[in-house]
Amino acid sequence: MPGNNVQQQRSETKSMANADIVNLILEDHRPLKKLITILKNTDKDSSEREEAFAEFAPLLVTHAKPEEQVLYTYMKNNEELREEGFEGDVEHQLADQLLEEIMRTDDEDLWSARVKVLAELVEHHIEEEESELLPDFKKNSEPAERLAMGQQFLMLKTKLLEQGGTDAAHESDLDKPKH
Ligand SMILES: [Fe+2]
Ligand SMILES: [Fe+2]
């Protein structure tokens, strides 16, 4: 039936638009932001924050690595976007360092302090990405490029997920915080 074809075409167009790397990144940010509100709140039960952190760490890494490899690499090769791409890299490096330190932290109060700082850092980073970096990237790229980058982003992310998360965030360590 012709009606069905039109409908099918429409939904294909829609899912292709969703595979734009900008949309994929915004989708990834959503669950991270939710967990950040728990991680920032030092009044919360420590077990609730530990659970949130165990969820947060692999989500962060499987988002950040493809973002660096696909988005930031593109930006660093573009005159207009180069500095912002580097800024993203630098902030990711800081988050990585903190993440590793948190994994090795036994002292409960130090763990809590480091987790809070990481959450604030990532929150600020995501806010800037959404309000400045992504709009600037959109202005300086073509829809077809963003779709191709979306495919790459998904491929890299799937690969990382298949490897069980990340190098930095060892699953077993995350399940049982050390303090
Ligand atoms: Fe991001
Ligand atoms: Fe980022």
Automatic annotation (TrEMBL):
Domain Hemerythrin-like: residue ranges: 21-135
- What name is this protein filed under? Hemerythrin-like domain-containing protein
Family annotation (InterPro entries)? Hemerythrin-like
Q: Where are the transmembrane segments?
A: none
Name the lineage. Answer: Bacteria, Pseudomonadati, Bdellovibrionota, Bdellovibrionia, Bdellovibrionales
One Pfam family named in its UniProt record: Hemerythrin
| Gene3D superfamilies registered for this protein in UniProt | nmb1532 protein domain like
